[in-house]
Design a protein that fits this description.
The protein is an alpha/beta fold and 146 residues long. It has five helices and five strands; from the N terminus they run E-H-H-E-H-E-H-E-E-H. It has a five-stranded parallel β-sheet with strand order 2-1-3-4-5, sandwiched between helices. Strand 3, helix 4 and strand 4 form a beta-alpha-beta unit. The longest helix has 16 residues. The two termini are 13 Å apart. Catalyzes a trans-dehydration via an enolate intermediate.
């Protein structure tokens, strides 16, 4: 059975509580539940993790990411400056789909640049919680093509 790691970065544990006008009012648990249902429907094992700590995200990419068929990663604020996470994404050789709830290109200037995007298989940005489902179907397509 194929496996997808869904890795949520800093502050995403507060979804539904913070900046609802930007991130919506749904919780991280709701995103994970929706993806779990999709995983069951398509016979994909889903593994979820969230961390506010850069080193933990890197360790999860090294450990779980290398043994996954695809990774859905929302690096959150680390998107814009974490060369260490970028290097981990590149090193694991597992396709990584970068996801953002908001359209990072329509926000503050400092959010317009992703250091992750050049080493990711693709990016989904600006579709709210549905962006994770879009990333799931992109991952499913990549897994089936292999």
């Amino acid at each position: 059975m194929a496996k997808i790691l869904v890795l949520h970065g800093p502050n995403l544990n507060l979804l539904g509580l913070r900046e609802r006008e930007v991130y919506g009012d749904g919780s991280l648990e709701r995103i994970n539940e929706n993806l779990t249902q999709l995983g069951e429907k398509f016979h994909i094992t889903m593994v979820f993790a969230q961390s506010n700590v850069e080193g933990e995200i890197i360790n999860l990419l090294h450990d779980e990411g290398r043994t996954s068929d695809c990774v859905i990663l929302n690096p959150a604020a680390y998107t814009h400056y974490s060369i260490a996470i970028r290097d981990a994404v590149k090193a694991i050789q597992t396709p990584v789909i970068e996801v953002h709830l908001s359209n990072i290109y329509a926000r503050e200037e400092f959010r317009h640049h992703s250091v992750i995007a050049p080493v990711a298989a693709g990016q989904v940005s600006g579709f709210g919680h549905f962006g994770y489902e879009m990333a799931f179907f992109a991952a499913l397509n990549m897994i089936k093509r292999r």
